[in-house]
Design brief:
With 165 residues, the chain is of the alpha/beta class. Helix content is 27%, strand content 25%. It has helices spanning 63-75, 104-109, 127-134, 136-147, 153-158, and strands at 11-18, 32-40, 52-57, 90-95, 111-115, 122-126, 161-163.
């Protein structure tokens, strides 16, 4: 059975079930018990939800505690409809990132390591140098990025994070 032509915005849905057994085990003489074909307009569905917007004040909060709270929201673990394979409908905005509570010892001893891909190309940078070069925004984003799951969704999740210094 071929489906009739419809606009591109409609989605073709076909439901079919055999009377006995699975389609692989059923004989050729058996026919469909149920055969439904219809067009589904995705714009009519209530599946599209609004993004939840969270605003977090980073003033006098520790970097790790704040990053954990943000990562939980970005993954959607704070919602009852948590799905591991989906990006949560949440946007997180952080204000006063430059007023985070970071110890002086942490600023000097914490090292960020990256590899250029060349032999002997390991680059290390202290947190205070990173703060002067890129600001507290990059420090917080790096901390949250490390707490998100290491899969294809991580880049999509981190796009929902906005940091204001």
């Amino acid at each position: 059975m071929t489906a009739p032509l419809a606009p591109a915005m409609y989605k073709y849905i076909h439901f079919g079930a055999h009377a006995r057994g699975s389609p692989r085990t059923a004989s050729k003489s058996e026919s469909y018990d149920l055969d439904l074909t219809f067009w589904l307009n995705p714009s009519n569905l209530e599946t599209q939800t609004k993004k939840m917007k969270y605003t977090i004040d980073a003033k006098n909060k520790k970097l790790g505690r704040l990053a954990t709270e943000i990562a939980v929201i970005l993954m959607g673990k704070n919602t009852p409809g948590f799905r591991r394979e989906r990006v949560a409908d949440a946007e997180v905005e952080i204000i006063n990132a430059s007023k985070m509570d970071i110890d002086e010892k942490k600023l000097t001893t914490k090292k960020y390591v990256r590899y250029t891909g060349y032999p002997g190309g390991i680059k290390t940078e202290a947190m205070d140098n990173l703060v002067t070069r890129k600001g507290y925004k990059d420090v917080l984003k790096t901390a949250v990025y490390g707490m998100l799951p290491k899969n294809k969704l991580r880049a999509k999740m981190i796009k929902n994070l906005n940091v204001v210094e």
